Amino acid sequence: MNVLKRVFSDRVLWIAGAAAIITSFISPPQLTDINWKTITSLLSMMIIIQIYDYLDLLKYYAAYLTRQAKTTRQLIFMLASLAFFGAMFLTNDVTILTLVPLFYKITKNLKINPIYPVIIIALAANLGSIFTPFGNTHNLFLLTHFNLDINQFFVMSTPITIINFIAIFIVTRFFPKNKIKLTQLPSVELNVPSLTLTLMVTIVIFLGIFSVIPMWGSLVAALLLVVFINPKILQVVDYSIVLIFMCFFIAVGNINRDPTIVNHLSGLIQTKTGTYLASIVTSQFISNVPTTILMSKFSTYVHAIFLGTNIGGLGTVIASLANLLAFKQYRFYFKENTGKYLLSFSAINFTLLIILGMIGYFLIDIIPT
């Protein structure tokens, strides 16, 4: 019952469900509109990510790295780096859910304004998750929808990831070098045998995602692993993400059968530049996940969609689900100055959106895909 309550309390799911229902008046929905490989891949990854979370992998490295920090600047850079690289493998959402509470515990012993560190954690998680197909759920969709191989994907993701890390490094340089001494940090023990087994199953899932083996085999492997480690992990898997994708698949499929809408949208994204800019702008209003699904139905410029929707995750607080999650975490733990948080978030995010947006504009033509 708790699982159902959590799933159906997701506001984004209600919006996605409403979109699927409303667009069904345009055209009757069809099950063939759903990309089942994406759904299977997504469910497999959601399960394996929750296993890593259960095994406290990110918490272990977070506790270890932050203990090394001697100044405020070092602390923020370590948290940002961990968010950046952790999001590549554990998704930006899980990374934020892990690191923001950890930072809250740290602030109990230090006098640090939490607004900017939380913003930087969310920013780093968003920018780092671009690198892999499983860091961002819409990257996984692009991989399966366009049948990309591993080389094609990393040719797109590597240059912008390097640039993103440089951006994170520069942003953290603005923090002061105040001396700090961390105490009472959580002690975490790693279950090495379970982690080793999880890593092996993760490789199996990757093979399924890249079509080396059937994707259903990867899902079976993930289910067997979670039953072996702790079946209760299945209760905390974010099934709403899977349902959100299914609803958006149906909504976009319904739209795709209306000639008037198809002609209008196709006219807007006939070029790489048009697709890129439309992906960034649309993400600001409906977030980058539905934007990716929408653009992919009307454009074959995969690199432009990839860069547009990933860079488009910056900007407004609704441009990425991770942005909303970070805001919720800040409001839950720190409570005060939510208005200042949103203003600061917008200033930093829109500044980087403009800078990285211009860089992405040149990358879509420089790098062939």
UniProtKB/TrEMBL annotation:
Cellular component terms (Gene Ontology): membrane
Top-level taxon of the source organism: Bacteria
Membrane spanning stretches: 12-31, 38-55, 75-103, 115-134, 154-176, 197-230, 236-255, 301-327, 339-364
Example GO biological process: transmembrane transport
This protein's UniProt keywords: Membrane, Transmembrane, Transmembrane helix, Transport
Compartments reported by the entry: Membrane
Residue intervals of the Citrate transporter-like domain: 14-296
Annotated membrane topology: Multi-pass membrane protein
Coiled coil segments of this chain: none
Protein name: Sodium:cation symporter
Organism: Companilactobacillus mishanensis
